[in-house]
């Protein structure tokens, strides 16, 4: 017991300061891509050819864009772009309120908007969420679990994952929505009392990710439950816990503006 206490004292505070201070990221972290279409060579499509999910749009033109909802953040497009038109930054603010906003261009990023005043009053400052793994690889699920550990401590914001959709304010969907999970996902959504939120986390839930086009899945929640509106899209493969935190806190109106900066650590 004494040894445990000594170790805890030596380690000190482990929870990141975010959102009251900069978030810590490993040196290899890739965030929102910065695009400079002026550096594109006309007709060049090397970056698009290197992308495994066809997330690069308008390659070799002034309309260069990247669909963050399909991007795996593998960095292959950046490596293939000899002109330097694509560069991944450390901007972790990736969550958006609409699917169309996930198409990143050279302009300033649009940040996730808060729920309207009525919805914020209904949910208050906390959220109870039921997570549904709809056929994914468990990468996004692992990051959602990590969001609750001592490093990120999701619970300090009043956000918790619950065991039953009947106790939830909304559902968090991961995975490409396989045919085998489609009925279970709908049943979970229907069991969640209204008004309810739907949050799509990860490239698979947004666009199908690397599983897009597979006959075994529906290319994400839009294909699996086309009649269900999505309130928040959080891209990544998988998204970092701070990206998830940033999106959820912006949805609740607890972060406005640019937010805190980024601290890089060697992990």
Automatic annotation (TrEMBL):
Keywords of the record: 4Fe-4S, Iron, Iron-sulfur, Metal-binding
Keyword Acyltransferase: no
Pfam families named in the record: Fer4, Oxidored_q6
Obligatory cofactor(s): [4Fe-4S] cluster
PANTHER family for this protein: FORMATE HYDROGENLYASE SUBUNIT 7-RELATED, HYDROGENASE-4 COMPONENT I
Gene3D superfamilies per record: 3.30.70.3270, 3.40.50.12280
Family that this chain belongs to: Belongs to the complex I 20 kDa subunit family.
Domain 4Fe-4S ferredoxin-type: 31-61, 62-91
Biological source species: Anaeromyxobacter oryzae
Protein name: Hydrogenase
Keyword Metal-binding among UniProt keywords: yes
